[in-house]
Design a protein that fits this description.
Number of domains: 1
Strand content: 25-35%
Helix content: 40-55%
Largest sheet: 3 strands, antiparallel
Low-confidence stretches: none
Mean pLDDT: 92
Order of helices and strands: EHEEEHHHHE
Number of strands: 5
Structural class: alpha+beta
Number of helices: 5
Length: about 130
Amino acid sequence: MTTMNQFTKRVGITADFEQVPGRPDGLMGDSARHYKVTLRILDGALSKSMTLYFSQGPACDTPTVADVLNCIQSDNTGEQTFEEWCGDLGYDTDSRRALATFQACVDQERKATRFLGSEYRRLLNAVEPL
């Protein structure tokens, strides 16, 4: 199995991190550190990018590309319905916050699929989580 760092290097993913006071979606609360992250892949003359928000606890080190990809990997809903996702993770299906979190994961999957192309499935199935 490939490590997250090996995958990042092989695909050629780099990132810019900008610390921000909060997330526009309101997720993750005030106690977390929030970043606006732009991931990039330079492939010859072709350049692709993906911008997302990444949050972590205040005791964590500065995030890396591998940290962000690890979260993209772990946030994958696996094409579950909202109800299935809630059941697996212990969320209340009557919670607006749970629905917002689920929708953020689904939106992130769409972006990651466009950004990584066929490498997205490899990230999900053949890369060892951190």
